[in-house]
Amino acid sequence: MLQPIYDEILGRNPGEAEFHQATRELLDSLGPVVARHPEYTDAGIIRRICEPERQIIFRVPWVDDAGQVQLNRGFRVEFNSTLGPYKGGLRFHPSVYLGIVKFLGFEQIFKNALTGMPIGGGKGGSDFDPKGRSDAEIMRFCQSFMTELYRHIGEYTDVPAGDIGVGGREIGYLFGQYKRITNRYESGVLTGKGISWGGSLVRTEATGYGTVYFANEILKNAGDSFDGKSVVVSGSGNVAIHAAEKVAALGGRVIACSDSSGYVVDEAGIDLDLLKEVKEVRRERISAYAEARGGSARFVTDGAVWDVPCDIALPCATQNELDEKHAVALVGNGCAVVAEGANMPCTPDAVRVFADAGVTFAPGKAANAGGVATSALEMQQNASRDSWSFAHTEERLEQIMIGIHARCLETADAYGAPGNYAAGANIGGFIKVADAMLALGVI
Ligand code: NDP
Ligand code: 2IT
Prior knowledge:
- The protein is of the alpha/beta class.
- The chain contains 18 helices and twelve strands.
- A hairpin with a 5-residue loop joins strand 1 and strand 2.
- Helix 13 packs parallel to helix 14.
- The longest helix is centred in the last third of the chain and has 25 residues.
- The model has no long low-confidence stretch (mean pLDDT 98).
């Protein structure tokens, strides 16, 4: 019954493979929902939810340190504002094109709904490659990007944040330029800000911590814990580093992590201070970690980080980084839980391998929702001109993740898919948005 809707998506959005993948993955869960709720079909909810409310594409010219004019393309897809202002990150990576931004914006709708916070879904970014660029070049790029983007965003309209290639440094330059152009100190227009200029404690850590809180709920549900577990994390950016930090705090041992150049295995457990120094301060490749660590660590370029035997896998790098053969390797090595810190890192074939093998799989739209949820807490603090303690904010984050976990399980149960977190997340997020769309009429 949903095939005609998927065919329509393929026809309307040619060449956008990641967007097709994300919509298909949602539609695959919605069969029991449309059977029980004909009113959604009558109101065209699914067709409307798959069509962005607005898509903005713009030119981003800037001058590099050698005085050469460089040209990039900027995007902001304002996907769905039913529950609140569009909310979602900005990604700066050479692979960015409309199909990636649309897949991310689409995921964001349902993820944001699951948090229970009043935020709609959106995403943006650019094909700009920050690697090897000086601070001055990053600043000029961010200023040019915001010189166009500013007219589309606002604390009640659209609130960007970070994603791959966009962290505290970039949010600073973006906020500075927004403030300058608008002559307004509108803190709530961006999240992920520095603590002294409107940011929230815990936002930096929130996505990684939240993913581990979610995985911890899965383990608790099975009468288990992180204590003594070996864990493999992919990536070594914001999400990966903070996921590793929380795993260690809960008694687990992170034995491998990666970047796009390869991976490191460190059986003694990744030294997080050293990893942060290498990746966040020196901005070097992951091999520099193994060189500095010596003895227990080795840098590997063959195969994938998923070849390292582990109890729990946390993919925290990028979309489609864990495919069928990686899933088979993980299953063969006894991995029991996979929780996605990244957005859509597991391919549909990999997810099927996990399901067949009885591996518990937590999809990104549930497991990595702690980042955007804490962004919503940052918006709350900005709106009330307040700032909360680390402990209070982290407690809110943990409760939100526990709540999302429970909602996934309850919804999966209610729709005949007990224990299926992907079905629970898709259906739970969808129904929340669909009911509100019904109330708001055909818009
Ligand atoms: P960062 O830029 O901080 O780190 C990204 C990491 O992933 C780096 O180690 C990077 O390696 C690796 N990576 C990126 N692209 C590729 C690629 N094509 N192949 C192999 N490795 C790659 O980003 P984040 O940690 O913020 O984001 C990671 C994931 O988490 C993304 O999927 C993002 O959408 C998702 N996410 C992020 C949230 C946040 O709050 N930041 C919230 C929710 C989800 P290299 O440096 O070599 O490129
Ligand atoms: O994918 C994501 O949820 C993010 N990159 C965070 C979005 C946000 O607005 O904090």
